[in-house]
Protein: Chondroitin AC/alginate lyase
Organism: Mycena albidolilacea
Amino acid sequence: MLPHHAFQPSLSHPHGALTLVLLLLTNLSLVVATNPFTCYANDFVSPDHATGHYPSNLSGAQDIIVAWANEMASYGPWSVTNKPVVAPSGNKHDYMSWAPYQWPDCSKVGNKTKLSPQTMWKTCPYVFRDGQVNPDRTTINDFQSFFNLSDAVLYNSLAFTFQNQSSSVYSQRVVQYIRTWFLDSATSMNPNLKYAQMNRGPQGQTGEYTGILDLRGFAKIASGILILRQHNSSDWTSDIDSKMVAWSNKYIDWLQTASTAKQAASAKNNHGTFYVNQLMALKLIVNDTAGATALGRGYFGGIYKGQMQSNGNQPMEASRSRPYHYRNFNIAGMITNARLLKYADPTSNDWNTTSNGATIQTAVDFLMTTNPASTHETNVTAEIYPNVAAVAATYGDPQGKYVKFLNASGFPYADDASFLWDQPLAGGTLSANSNASPDDSQSHNGSSSSSAITVNRTVIWLLSGLLTGGWLW
Ligand SMILES: *[C@@H]1O[C@H](CO)[C@@H](O)[C@H](O)[C@H]1NC(C)=O
Ligand SMILES: *[C@@H]1O[C@H](CO)[C@@H](O)[C@H](O)[C@H]1NC(C)=O
Ligand SMILES: *[C@@H]1O[C@H](CO)[C@@H](O)[C@H](O)[C@H]1NC(C)=O
Ligand SMILES: *[C@@H]1O[C@H](CO)[C@@H](O)[C@H](O)[C@H]1NC(C)=O
Ligand SMILES: *[C@@H]1O[C@H](CO)[C@@H](O)[C@H](O)[C@H]1NC(C)=O
Ligand SMILES: *[C@@H]1O[C@H](CO)[C@@H](O)[C@H](O)[C@H]1NC(C)=O
Ligand SMILES: *[C@@H]1O[C@H](CO)[C@@H](O)[C@H](O)[C@H]1NC(C)=O
Ligand SMILES: *[C@@H]1O[C@H](CO)[C@@H](O)[C@H](O)[C@H]1NC(C)=O
Ligand SMILES: *[C@@H]1O[C@H](CO)[C@@H](O)[C@H](O)[C@H]1NC(C)=O
Ligand SMILES: *[C@@H]1O[C@H](CO)[C@@H](O)[C@H](O)[C@H]1NC(C)=O
Ligand SMILES: *[C@@H]1O[C@H](CO)[C@@H](O)[C@H](O)[C@H]1NC(C)=O
């Protein structure tokens, strides 16, 4: 069960009133994208898919990417130095987050009177309650900031390719976001996760291996950087490139040597999968293609082999409190690893590698016939759509089974961002753009009249609820 607090979008949210007014005033002229994701559990978009030239049947996906690029920009830039507290090191450049499923247990500390939160945080040992998110989790926003940063980098770098320019507001934003989070001396993050997913309580105050997962979005950031490089963005200068490579090398060193990072690396479930996502992405940023390839091969020849049963079930995810969610979550990590490896080594063929006879496709097929209600999971069905689209695009869909599933779901997948890179996949174009001419990429920069599109903020809220509630570990 997701905590109730995660799903209370309210009109007191400043954007809520704004959206309502916008919808009332401009209902006729505004095309509202009804559902697309702002935040995939993870993904890697090869720069080879961001060609800059897209057929007109991708214009719905292009429009929503531009809309998300602009929407995310309203929250940035982001920095670990923005948080209202400082990590136990006393260094405001240290990343920090609270563990989501850890709760104070004051039953054994002889509390006779009601303890103040401050006393509770210091004296009560913390215990694990899987799937129950402690609301303290959201009082420090570093993890949300990083999720938003990685989405902003991905969508803005893609939007940059929609225009045939060496510089645009989109590429400038990507550079500003990367400078602020990683490079500027006043705001930069130290290259470690020593305080990620800390517990409170007397035995806490250092990060846990589970916190390594907080930065899986590096796969999206690597996508953005590789896209700017490949498109010769004049904003992505050799100076910023070499500084980002230097930062990444230091962080790679930490990820390969710190004890919590090594624990994440040896985890056999989604933690191990996402560790590989993150480290492969960093290796691509520093142009260590051989290192990325070795990691990807290590994953598909290693823990992947133990993650599935022959029918595509994933026992280590199925045993968690929210099995439908966790299976989809790990599949997103598998897909990201397969995509990163294909980019690092185009001769690789790991979408076909089996785990007890099953492939990524078998895992998705299994979930397509699994009803999340049978495990009392609500608001999670949407998690399968990007996985289905990726499988259909990669393995093909000769019987139309995947398109039928997506179409029947009511999810307008062809107007979802991932439709741009999950190709080929049958599907349409947002009706507002149906008169767009083929290869009309120049018009998709968010300001032309055919791009009179806005994002459905109800869905942002829903998904940010998922962010705080579920997409954690
Ligand atoms: C936004 O999405 C929500 C949830 O999918 C849906 O109920 C609502 O109708 C959408 N709003 C608009 C204006 O399309
Ligand atoms: C002791 O702490 C627990 C929280 O773990 C709390 O529920 C309980 O009310 C406390 N007891 C008293 C007497 O305050
Ligand atoms: C991140 O984006 C979500 C919308 O997707 C927003 O609700 C949240 O406030 C943002 N948080 C930060 C720290 O940028
Ligand atoms: C992109 O711009 C260059 C000049 O800057 C021009 O030569 C080229 O034809 C343009 N490409 C397209 C597809 O418009
Ligand atoms: C980027 O520059 C390289 C080398 O100058 C060139 O080969 C390539 O075509 C350029 N790419 C784009 C998208 O303009
Ligand atoms: C990346 O490494 C390859 C060799 O693996 C080399 O050919 C290429 O020039 C390098 N690219 C950059 C941008 O350093
Ligand atoms: C699921 O989402 C809807 C809004 O789309 C909300 O009304 C409902 O309370 C949510 N259910 C749970 C269990 O959070
Ligand atoms: C799986 O392997 C077969 C045979 O080599 C190949 O034709 C097919 O493209 C591969 N599928 C994927 C998804 O890589
Ligand atoms: C989208 O357009 C491309 C290029 O025109 C075409 O090859 C492809 O079949 C189209 N896809 C669909 C689903 O219509
Ligand atoms: C999706 O379903 C609609 C009817 O609901 C149908 O008109 C359309 O052709 C279907 N699209 C695909 C790609 O199957
Ligand atoms: C979008 O493109 C139009 C026409 O090509 C241009 O005038 C406008 O400045 C662009 N807007 C952005 C935000 O780049």
Remarks:
- The pocket of 2-acetamido-2-deoxy-beta-D-glucopyranose (ligand 2) is lined by residues 104-107, 111-115 (CB under 6 Å).
